[in-house]
């Protein structure tokens, strides 16, 4: 047998070892990215998986074998160098042809996870609300709607809310709860949507309102205490939703007295005596003592001496600006986790006391 015949037989043997997916992968890589990318769109997912696996199993293919593969598929091929690093080349083509999600789904052994249908249930979030807040919300609703809402909560939560309602309304709601039959899914979805928007601030629906809450709180924090309280009361009277999220971000100079001792010490440790002195001008005695008790003895004596000299010639705008600086510093330190601001519940308890 001649050497030429022997080479041809060796080539045929090499060709026989390649599977059909390997041959197809070889041709795609040889075609180059532009042409191969257009063709890949026509392959099914399982076919693409086979091509990737086949390409990664390929080793260097001599040019004569590549020409035989092309002839077998009866395709035209421009003569060039042999085929090397088929797996890497196929990865490059696929990465430039498919999106990251498509590639992830293609290469994952597990089937892609189905997207959740619609927003998550509202009822677990409603159950976390304070009974007083939920009772206020239900007081403005039709008794039938209130009955439906309470019917979707646990007995314990529903009972805590009911005792907060006026007796006539409570009786009406309980009567309606006793006669509630199976509600249509469409009706329940409408109620859930309203709860999500008006009671939960749409946080259960995936909408992030934290930026808006922070923006509003920053605006309100620029007001003095009397103005802030007036605006918040007006918002409550107007039925504005999710005021608790706003209150949690509010902090004024007057609230310094409500800080715990450790937080007060940390806050004033980083402030200049000049700023503290200016902020304490004309401040209430209780607030002044709380702040002075949080600073060193030497700084306290200096501040007390300045305050004893009176506030003549000191502009009210400068005092207000100093107080805002102190309050904003407290808010920043709270955001960094350095101090703990008093909660809205603490304020309510103090007001009641």
Q: Helical proportion?
A: 55-70%
Number of strands: 0
State the end-to-end CA separation: 110 Å
Name the poorly predicted regions. 1-14, 74-86, 202-208, 347-353
Q: How many H/I helical runs? A: 22
CATH topology of the largest domain: Annexin V, domain 1
Rounded mean pLDDT is 74
**What is the radius of gyration computed over CA atoms, rounded to a whole number of angstroms?**
36 Å
Largest sheet: none
Described by the principal axes of the CA atoms, the overall outline is flat
CATH class of the largest domain: Mainly Alpha
Work out the count of structural domains: 4
Taken in chain order, the helices and strands follow as: HHHHHHHHHHHHHHHHHHHHHH
Hey, roughly how much beta strand do the residues contain? under 5%
CATH architecture of the largest domain: Orthogonal Bundle
Helix/sheet category: mainly alpha
Features:
353 residues; mainly alpha; Annexin V, domain 1; 22 helices; 66% helix; flat; disordered N terminus
Give a verbal description of the structure.
With 353 residues, the protein is mostly helical. The chain folds into four domains: 3-107, Annexin V, domain 1 (Orthogonal Bundle), CATH 1.10.220; 123-207, Orthogonal Bundle (Annexin V, domain 1); 211-247; 253-345, Orthogonal Bundle (Annexin V, domain 1), CATH 1.10.220. The protein is built from 22 helices and no strands. The protein is flat. Mean pLDDT is 74; it is low at 1-14, 74-86, 202-208 and 347-353.
